[in-house]
Amino acid sequence: MRMDITDFYETFFEEAEELLADMERHLLELDVDEPDVEQLNAIFRAAHSIKGGAGTFGFDVLQKTTHLFENLLDHTRKGELALRSDIVDTFLETKDMLSDQLDAYRNGDEPDQEAFERICRTLQQLALEEIGQDLEGGAPPSKPEPEPAATPEPSAESQAADSAADGGGRRVVALLGVADKDRELLVEELGQLGEVIEQRGDQTRYEVVLESTISDDDIEAVMCFIVDADQLEISAEAAPAASEAAPAASEEAPAPSESPTQAEPSSQSAPAATSATPPAEPQPATKAPDDKVPAKPKSKAKAKAKPGGSESTSIRVSVDKVDQIINLVGELIITQSMLDQTVSELDGPANGNLVNGMSLLQRNARDLQEAVMSIRMIPMDFVFSRFPRVVRETAGKLGKEIELVTEGESTELDKSLTERIIDPLTHLVRNSLDHGIEMPDDREAAGKPRTGKLTLSARHQGGNIIIEVIDDGAGLNRDKLLAKARENGLNVSDSMSDDEVWQLIFAPGFSTAKAVTDVSGRGVGMDVVKRNIQGMGGHVVIMSRPGEGTTIRIVLPLTLAILDGMSIKVGEEMFILPLSAVLESLQPTREELYAMAGDDVVLKVRDEYLPVVAVHEALDVAGAKTELTETIAVIVQGEGRRYALLVDDLVGQQQVVVKNLETNYRKVPGVSAATILGDGSVALILDITGLHKLSRAKKEARRPRRDADSLEAFSVNELETSS
Amino acid sequence: MNQTPEAAMAAAEAHNREFLVFSLGDEEYAVDILKVQEIRGYENVTRIANAPDFIKGVTNLRGVIVPIVDLRIKFHLDKVEYGGQTVVIVVNVEDRVVGIVVDGVSDVMTLSPDQIKPAPEFGVTLSSDFLSGLGSLEDRMLVIVDIDKLLTSDEMALVERVAE
């Protein structure tokens, strides 16, 4: 009979978190003068759903807070409470409080009682002032309410009904339009809550007669995990054969069809309000059903206005499972390539069917891979949606007027990257608001509209996603940056290009803000922002024009699991270069190679001298071409710098599945990861910056000895004479 | 094996452990069979640059990248050849999968606790820290390797230490 409810905690927390996020979005979008009824309904629904869950799981504080909140929202959506922007602020504050409470429960703590009482008082106050009404029920225990209705204990009337119901509350649970499979599940659940006496009906209306001591609220809450509230109708068993409790119950409860809105919020003054108060202490679902629980015979048919279609059909799957599928599909692709290779060696015409089958398999496998990869992709909306709040609050604190524009919310990005981009992006946005956009008066003086504009945009470009934070503020001040850099002891010169000057803001401990505000200006962070973004395989570009604004552009790879690679050969070994890093490749001529300081070599490409990194040397590959002019120079870019990698051969381009080397081994210098090639062998993916460092370290280590070997390997001797 | 009554056998068996016996040159070594995931041939190993010489590289074990360690090089054996007999024992150590190259796998032995003698302090190349003992089996001697300690030791350089 016992259901282990703790199994569902995580589901509830996740769901509640999503609901709160939704709520916030709607609150922020809300037009105060002309609120959209749909949005008000959505906010109300979110609060209501959280309340239901909180009640089921026995999260009292959360339940009481949402209860108050819900009632206020109900007045709002009925137009009894006129919205003002400060009311919306209060609502937002309440939403934050709910998040805090949720976090506390998640960590196994009790929420902050003081904060809870404060928010309750705020909400009560609001209700008293705005609609001249007290919110019924759910008051914090510390704040005594004059009316008995406000105390969480069931009133005398409902207690009378309870005692009757305790003798055996028999009621009809009707399932409306529930599919057969779900129905079986529901009936089984009901069986856990009490005794199923009878079941009848068809798919459109299926009735289950249940003998149980559990309250309707709790039955509903349990069922709501599987069906929508409006698919459920709970009423007292009307049949005379029912226990003595039944008549008492049906007396008090209106017939389900008569209560078009949910009974709770609509009943404001009637004694029914008392029974609307959810049982405060015993949460039957968390305990054994035979606990003494006030069963509420009140009907809770939720035929309330709940426009369908707002809920998207989705399922919650753990990331581990998705990753496992991605891995398996990766394996499939490798196996398919292996087969493909074997088949290509066969006689084509004689094995026509096999060849056709193989090409079909290849197409299907690729499609499958794409589809699976897209599971991990989520729209940038997930990230952008939190910024209206950030901007609103930051702008408020700074006394600036700011309009936020978001573009390309539907652009998709790998989930792991989306999560990691939030913090750096928040930092950049705060920075733009604080340092970028000027005060309204200054803006007016500069002939610009008072309201500053901050644009967040996302778009795909090649295999990358480009995220931009654009402000129309004053732009970066070159002289100020340089002066500040000198003050900080950085090595700068006036001849530095704008680009280099802009990059200075990413230097650790660098801030040009005149005063440290609580928004930004401590100079901590921009360097972290840059590091984080580089950690994700991306880079940051800054464009700025004095008086017109600044654009900070983040370029990120779409996913970390799959890489467009260029396979190269050095000696007999195959390596992969990330295609995104490859700019071009060329055959170096003697005239373009210059020796520097003995054994350093640079390659001149279109007026630019690039350091030469011989892959065979950095990675000790035997049997590679050592004559520089016979090799191929691949011009690559890593962390903003360009290098010329010397390789023996370019083999081709292919998509590779990135495999972590550190799972079973350790980090290897010059190598970022590994992958599995079509023939089943492992190829290492090169890390360009690491490779350059490695090659320098090797030269460094060899320098004191200066043996003829190393010089020969690089054939610098000849170069020195030729240049 | 002595002929003992079945009940006594069962009691003794509770403490008996099974070992996979492998050879490195003329020496016989043993590892706890519960650590062994599988045995496969030596093939298709991708070299890793700048790694110690006994780390032969990495290979693809059904989609998992697994490092391969040649114990013959690690133990400074004279003859290191790769042929049809060369096998890789894939072991599971601290949630990691590692392949070790040996000259051959002979059999699985059950050793009772009294057949395992403590290892003497002897090795320069193979510290007794990495041994769980010596197994004596009539005229044979098995060097029982504590594969967990050996493969996660600093000198194997297989595992990155947090301090690094």
What is the structure about, briefly put?
The complex is a heterodimer of chains A (about 725) and B (about 160). By secondary structure, chain A is of the alpha+beta class.
What does this structure look like?
The complex is a heterodimer of chains A (723) and B (164). Chain A is of the alpha+beta class and 723 residues long. Chain A has 24 helices and 22 strands. Chain A folds into 5 domains: 5-150, HPT domain (Four Helix Bundle (Hemerythrin (Met), subunit A), Up-down Bundle), CATH 1.20.120; 156-286, Alpha-Beta Plaits (2-Layer Sandwich); 319-378; 380-557, Histidine kinase-like ATPase, C-terminal domain (Heat Shock Protein 90), CATH 3.30.565.10; 562-722, OB fold (Dihydrolipoamide Acetyltransferase, E2P), CATH 2.40.50. In chain A, strands 14-18-19-17-16-15 form a 6-stranded mixed β-sheet. A 5-stranded mixed β-sheet of chain A has the order 6-8-9-11-10. In chain A, strands 20-12-13-22-21 form a 5-stranded mixed β-sheet. In chain A, 38% of the residues are buried. With 164 residues, chain B is mostly beta strands. Chain B is built from 3 helices and 11 strands; from the N terminus they run αβββββαββββββα. In chain B, strands 8-1-2-11-10-9 form a 6-stranded mixed β-sheet. The longest helix of chain B is centred in the first third of the chain and has 8 residues, at 6-13. The model of chain B has no long low-confidence stretch (mean pLDDT 81). Chain A binds chain B through residues 327, 330-331, 334, 573, 618-621, 659-671, 674, 676, 680-684, 694, and chain B through 44, 46-51, 57-60, 62-67, 96-98, 157-160.
CATH architecture of the largest domain in chain A: 2-Layer Sandwich
Count of all domains of chain A: 5
Can you identify the CATH superfamily of the largest domain in chain A?
Answer: Histidine kinase-like ATPase, C-terminal domain
Which fold name corresponds to the CATH topology of chain B?
OB fold (Dihydrolipoamide Acetyltransferase, E2P)
Specify which chain pair forms the largest interface. A-B, 30 and 24 residues
